Structure formats: C-alpha cells, structure tokens
UniProtKB/TrEMBL annotation:
Residues 1-24 are annotated as: Disordered. It is a multi-pass membrane protein. It comes from Mycolicibacterium vanbaalenii (strain DSM 7251 / JCM 13017 / BCRC 16820 / KCTC 9966 / NRRL B-24157 / PYR-1). Keywords: Cell membrane, Membrane, Transmembrane, Transmembrane helix. Its main location: membrane. Residues 1-20 have a biased composition (Polar residues). The chain crosses the membrane at residues 45-69, 75-100, 107-128, 134-160, 205-221, 255-281, 293-313, 320-340, 346-369, 381-400, 412-431. GO terms for molecular function: transmembrane transporter activity. This is H+ Antiporter protein. It comes from the Bacteria. It is found in: Cell membrane.
Amino acid sequence: MVGNHRSVSTQYETGRSSARSDSEQPVAPAGWRVLAPFRYREYRLLIAAVSLSIFAEGMWAVVMALQVIELSNDPAALSLVATCLGAGLVGFVLVGGLAADRLSQRGIIIVVEAVNTVAVTAVAVLGFVDALRIWHMAVAAAALGIAAAFFFPAYSAILPRILPPEQLLAANGIEGVVRPVFQRAVGPAIAGLVVGALFPSAGALVVAVLFATGLALLVATRPPKAKDTGAQHEPRPHLLRDLRDGWVFMLRTPWLLWTLLFASLFVLVVLGPIEVLLPFVVAERFTHGAQTYGFILAFFGLGSALGALGVSSRRLPRRYLTVMMAMWSVGSVPLVIVGVTSSFPLMALATFVIGVTDGTAMVIWGTLLQRRVPPELLGRVSSLDFFVSLAFMPVSFAIVGPLSKIVSMEAIFLAAGLLPVLLAAVAVWAAKMHRDEVAHPLR
C-alpha cells in the first residue's frame, strides 16, 4: 500500500522529459488533468491492457471459487487453491522487484500476461474435456500469483519511463478508478452471470480471452527510450547486493521507512476486521446478509474509485505526505461506526468514506514512489512496499478470528478505527514529514 521516495534531481527530470514523444503534447487542460496521460500512445496501449487484465482478475476470483466448488464441495479445497495463489505472490514479490530493476519492464509485463493467458486457458480446456482436477487449479493459482509478483514492480517502474513526472498522479488515479470498478464490481458480476448461465469452464474461457487480448495490446507497445545515463553499460552488482541496496535505501529514507512501518501495522490492525469480521457483522445485523454484504463492498469500491478520480484530477497536494497519512489514518475512523451500527445507510456511508480516503491515499502514494524513488531502485522499492503489505495480511486474518471469541466486535472495530490515527501521528513525527514535504516540493 505504500512506498515512494526518490531524490528528484534536475538531471532526472530532464531525462524524464526527453522520453516524451515529439509529436505529442504533454499538457492537458487543467479541467481534464486526469485525461492527460491518454495523449501518449504507449500509455493508451498499456492502460488498455492493464484494464483488461484487472477485469480478468475480477472475473477469475469468482470463476476460481465456483470451479473449485464444482470439483470438490469442500472449503479446504478452496483454501488450498487460494493459499497457492497467495504463496506465489508473497514468495516471489521481492524477486519481481529485482527483475524490474535489472530487466526490461515491458518484457516482464508481456511475459506475465502470457503466463496468465496460458494458465487460465489450460484450466478452461481441461474443464471443457472434463479432465480438470483440484491440483490443476492449485498449479494455475500458483502461476497467477507468481506472475502478479512480477507484474506490480514492473508496472510501477515503467510508468515514469513513458510519462512525464507531472502526469504520474493522473496515471495512478486512472488505475485507482479502473481497479475497484473492474476488479471489485464489474468483473465479479459478469463472472457470476456467465457461470450462472453456463458453467465455470465457460467463465475461465472468457478470462483467458481477456488476458490474450491484453497480451496483444502489450506486444503492440514500443520499448521506452533508454534513460540518458551512462550507467546502463556498467556491470550490474550481484543479486543479493541489488536486494541489499533496496533495503539500505529504504532504511536511510525516513519518510519511506516510517510510511512502510505505518503500513505494516495498518494492515495488521485494519485488514482482518474488514475482510474476516465484516461479513459476519453484516450477516448478524441484516436480514439478507449476502446481498447486503455485496452492496457494502460496492459502496467501498465506488468510494475508492471516486477518491482516486478526485485527487488525480488536481495537482498533487502541497502537503502530500501529511494529506496521505491523514487519509489513511483519519479515514479509518468510520470503522468505529461499522462496529456498532445496525443501520444500512450508516454502514454504507461509513464504508464509502473509507473507500474515498483509501483511494485518495493510494494514488498519492503510488505517485510518490514514481516521483521520489530513483528509477534504478523503483522496482525494488515497489516490491518492498508490496511485500510489507502482504506479509502482515495473513497474520491479521489469523488472529482476528480467535480474538473475536474473547473480545466484542464493537471493541475490535473501535481499535481498528482509532489505532491508525495514533500510528500515523507517530510516523509523521518520527520521519519529520512536515519538513520533508516542504523541502521536496512536487507540484
């Protein structure tokens, strides 16, 4: 959820500007700032491919679950498949960061989309010929998880090579709108319709077609221009030294280190109650629990999309670190309402506000990664950010269930809503973020 610090040097900004296409204008009217990146052909192809991939991922989450249930109506089987996906992601995300800094990011993204296409196509074909087994699903899930571990660092690192710095906020905002809409709403809904009308293998086939179309768009892109630095011809250090350099940079960069520390504790405190306890809260307090839970998630997704769109339509806030930390911390306070209310409008409003603040903070954070982390370290720092967020996710899931048996739901959501405010205050003070953002203006 977090990560971007780089010393913004004049040479780097000049190099970034030189990557612009001579035939394209980099500036969009102020009222349409969020649309400015679409002036660049490579970005148009990239975001179209990424959007299709996100749509496919949203569908696959439902298709995978329904396919496993059809093969074996056993929660343990679905747990196995989901664990394989998560293990592939966590186990390879740091390797993905190393690869993004050493290899062609465009090449990595193309290979990732090819792996996605092959894995899901195999599931679809095996399903159609009635030869699909649980272990096939587990292998496919692991492949998709590993592919995702390589995708995120490469995607984060390639954006600054195809867009000028002043348009990275808009580009991150676009993805911040696309992801919740396609992955959390449209994708699952379409998958449910397709599988409901036909069968899970038909849904897998649609997912494979989406991945394949995205792959074709990525192949049509052109490699970004090489950075204007002579370092590219120097021998690269050992992989372990590469990884160490990423950690050293993080440890020596206060705003980055303390934001990552905040993020790890934020995930630990907040994610378990939302992902594990919220479904039970909704089921206990509302008559139609399943449908109500779906609407609650939809309000969160809508808020996240609107938050991302709103912040990306404007210039980066002058106090960007302060605003980002306030969005994540103060934005979690409505969880207190979620813990106590039996009113659907209040719960929907609370999750909507949480979504708005989370979407806003995520766009600012992604932009900071690309604006303040040196380009040669961006892949590794992005993967560290992703790794920190993922590492504490299963811990949060594991402890919140047993904890709910000895502590009330209301108390757990109270802590989840208020602790981030204290954690953010400590991080802002320890990293002297109010001074750092003034010393490194990004507007």
